[in-house]
Amino acid sequence: MQLSASQLSSYLQQHGLPPLLAIFGDTPLLIDDSLQVVRQYAKQHGVDEREYHRQDASFDWRMLSQSSNNLSLFSSHRLIELELPDAKPGRDGAEALRNYAEQPLTDQTLVIIGPKLKAEQLKAKWFLQLQHGALMVEANSPERRQLPRFIAERAQRYQLQLDSQAQQLLADWFEGNLLALDQELQKLALMDLPQPLNQTAISAAAQDQSRFSVFALQEAIVAGQLEAALHRLQRLFEDDAEIAILNWMLQREWHKLSRLESAIQQGESLARVYPQLQIWRNQEQSYQQFLRRLQNHHQLAQAADLLRRIELAFKRDSGEQLRTLITHLVCLYCDPAAATVHSKLCYDSF
Known about the structure:
Distance between the termini: 54 Å
Helix content: 55-70%
Strand order of the largest sheet: 1-6-2-5-4-3
Radius of gyration: 24 Å
Strand content: 5-15%
Number of helices: 17
CATH class of the largest domain: Alpha Beta
CATH topology of the largest domain: Rossmann fold
Largest sheet: 6 strands, parallel
Order of helices and strands: EHEHEEHEHHEHHHHHHHHHHHH
Shape: globular
């Protein structure tokens, strides 16, 4: 049986914990939501034994077939969480998962956690057997047309009411970054604003929060306003802006340009592509000029390389200066012809 993350709580209340449950998706927020629902239900029903495992080179797959003989005196059931970071269990893991899915242990609930699966993974024998024997939970980000409703439902968790324009505004700001959306809803809830919140109220509240300077920076980048962009970036650095949101915005702009370039090369109608990228009519000319800036200087590939290095510096501490890389990319986006000179100045500033 397959459920969405939002349906999981209701299912558990009606049917209880299944012996085998799998959560796969592209959205960490929804994966974590699902795990919290399972953990809370288990705890409420006397399951106090919980183990977490992460598949790596040293993981022993025999763990799946071991009976839970070490339960405490106060628990007859345990919760086992197994994360597959890449959803690639390997030969031994695939065999172990197939065998377990055929005959799961009755004194425990095994929760398999992983990313959204690719086409070849969906056809793998281990996944097909898992799909047959497990409760499957899909934790994927909602489509753009579903996002306003998702935001309204998410806001209710924090006793927030949003009108339709407010929902659309937040959808424009946070599409593709639901974790940042959730954090913002929590902050809005703490501000005790009159409800229902409308677009004006959210925009006014945003002016006092440094995170929304990311969107002001985005506007300057698209318009090619280098000095304004560097000033806004400096303010973000001074305010210790969340790098995850900044990085997400910079990546999203590159993906828009890359998609536009591909559409032009393939002779697609840009009038159809713009809505897909949430580029509105009053932004079309600016994005045409933005793409032309980088195309004329063949800089899309260099921008992609900078984004890769930013990701490594941010997530893996590669040793490169994160602020320097971000500043270089902003310079490149705004004025490729002058990027070398400006980037050197920016490097010297940090």
